[in-house]
Amino acid sequence: MKLAAKYNRVTLIASIIVLIFTGVIYYAVIHYILTGQLDRDLAIEEDEITAYVKTYGKLPQAGSFKEQKVSYSLIEANRNVERRYFNNDYFNESEQKVEPGRSLIYTVQVNGKRHSVTVTKSRVESEDLVRIIFLITLSVTILLLITLLLINRFILNNIWKPFYGILLQMKAFNLADKNDIRIESTKIDEFTELNAAVITMSLRVKQDYRELKSFTDNASHEMMTPLAVINSKLDTLIQTETFSDSQGELIEDIYVAVGKLSRLNQSLLMLAKIENNLIGDQETIELDNLIRQKTRQFQELLQLHNINLKTELANKQINMNKHLADMLINNLLSNAIRHNYKDGEISIQLNDSQLIVSNTSSDTALIADKVFERFYKNAASEGMGLGLAISNQICNLYHFKLNYAYQNLRHFFTVSF
Within 10 A of 390 (CB to CB), how many other CB atoms are there? Predict the structure, then answer.
């Protein structure tokens, strides 16, 4: 959920709760005030009736007047009627309809006889006033909420615009790109600090990247030279001297170790170039023809181990660097041969959406979460553990998906285009 949406939701819920709570209190207070006013009017009527009885010795005439009704009833001497106010409905003769009312009942004594007096006043005006106040309050509340939502929608979106601008630039940030992150114009102090921090970070990262790239290039160049010298000297040494068997084995071990170090250096450099998107020169490649070419190159090795190769190749064109495409197929095929056993089988299936390379193997299943990590390999493997890591990086570069699975004692590597 976006921050603006979260803020709007919290603000709206809090506003509704507060407004409902205050609205209920406001309604109760208004209702209490208006009821108190009716009670005071009824008390005035009580005083007037009592004064009339004292003056004339009789009760005023009963009947219905404008929004008021007075009625009397004779009560027994031993019966007690409590003076009280209460709400009720009464028939308004002038309006000829039943209306809500507020009544006061009390007793008065006239000529030795006790009478119950009920004075009723209409609550219609009070109810109408409360209803009008409620509608006005509800309208103001709705208008306030709509105004709040509009303010949050337009003003907050405009306030957060610099943040989303810098975020978009950070998503598109590329170390190999010469364009720097530009400052987003804003008057918000926090966003100004964010701009400064992001620009400082990007400049520092680019500087570190340039230094690392320079170190990698220099280290590669400097390593290749002594490795070439060592190989050359070993060749010369082998051709010019006679060695015992033990000396020959030592020199062979040195030769193998130097070759492995050279391949390791080249593989790490290739990984660095792929990860930093420094590989260009894309072209349209007939992937099925490339696979046929690679299988012919591995034919002698397949025959040596008596491995049966099955292929189902449909026509498939991909747009990528030719050297990387060759390296991808080479790694997958050589991996299938290296981890196979004598009289085993390799299957290559290519269609418009997938390339599947599977092989029989005496090895157990690899750890799926680590199979494409650098230097991860089976304990019995003689490789460097970089082939699958390089293959995975090649697929990531061109937005392919490389997956691993182990089923029916076979390893499956699937490239989804």
Answer: 20
Residues making up the chain, counted from first to last: 417
Give the SS3 label for residue 119: strand
Is the distance from CB of 101 to CB of 71 less than 8 angstroms? no
**Domain 282-416 = CATH 3.30.565.10:** yes
pLDDT at 278 over 70: no
Alpha-carbon distance of 13 to 18, in angstroms, equals 9
Give the model's pLDDT for residue 279: 67
Residues 6+ positions from 389 with CB-CB distance below 8 Å: 271, 372, 373, 374, 375, 376
Contacts of range 143-152, beta carbons closer than 8 Å, 24 or more positions apart: 144/15, 144/19, 145/12, 145/15, 145/16, 145/19, 148/11, 148/12, 148/15, 149/8, 149/12, 152/4, 152/7, 152/8, 152/11
pLDDT tens digits, residue range 338-352?
888 888 999 999 999
pLDDT in tens, 297-322: 889 888 888 999 999 999 999 988 88
* In contact, 347 and 359? CB cutoff 8 Å: yes
Q: What confidence tens digit (pLDDT) does each residue in 123-156 have? A: 888 888 878 887 888 888 888 888 877 877 777 7
